[in-house]
Write a structure and sequence with these properties.
- The chain is built from 5 helices and 5 strands.
- By secondary structure, the chain is α/β, with parallel strands linked by helices.
- Strands 3-2-1-4-5 form a 5-stranded parallel β-sheet, sandwiched between helices.
- The two termini are 26 Å apart.
Length: 142
């Protein structure tokens, strides 16, 4: 069974990548295992002040991740395709590499333009970081 990790940030570009995953799923003999991943940049104490609890920070990452995952989840739900979703926190390349390993993902699908450096996936430095960090094929969807 093919295991695909789709990197999503809530942008139209990442939705195009998910639509690509949906279209190619129909070509598979066996239903692929699809995982959505949103990576949140870590918030440093200097960015938020000293009086924010770890629980509040975890809630923030969860809420922002769920907001970014919503369009992709809807596309997959509307297509009747089962999937799992994940919210990672950390540097993009390292975080994606960790999920590829944990999930035994065989390929990555991602858009070429995202929402920006905080939650997005951009063609350029973010793509380069992912390419350098993983050893599985990456499909870039325009």
């Amino acid at each position: 069974m093919l295991k695909t990790l789709a990197l999503v940030d809530g942008s139209e570009s990442s939705s195009r990548a998910v639509r690509y995953v949906i279209a190619t799923s129909a070509l598979c003999k066996e239903a692929p295992e699809i995982h959505l991943l949103n990576v949140q940049m870590p918030v440093t104490p200097g960015n938020i002040g000293r009086h924010v609890s770890h629980g509040d920070l975890d809630d923030y990452y969860h809420d922002e991740g769920m907001r970014a995952l919503a369009p992709a989840r809807k596309l997959l739900d509307d297509a009747g395709i089962r999937h799992a979703f994940h919210i990672g926190v950390g540097e993009i390349g390292e975080t994606v590499a960790r999920y590829v390993k944990e999930l035994s993902a065989q390929q990555i699908a991602m858009g070429t333009r995202g929402l920006g450096p905080v939650a997005g996936l951009l063609l350029g430095s973010v793509t380069a970081k992912v390419v350098q960090a993983v050893n599985v094929p990456i499909v870039l969807v325009k």
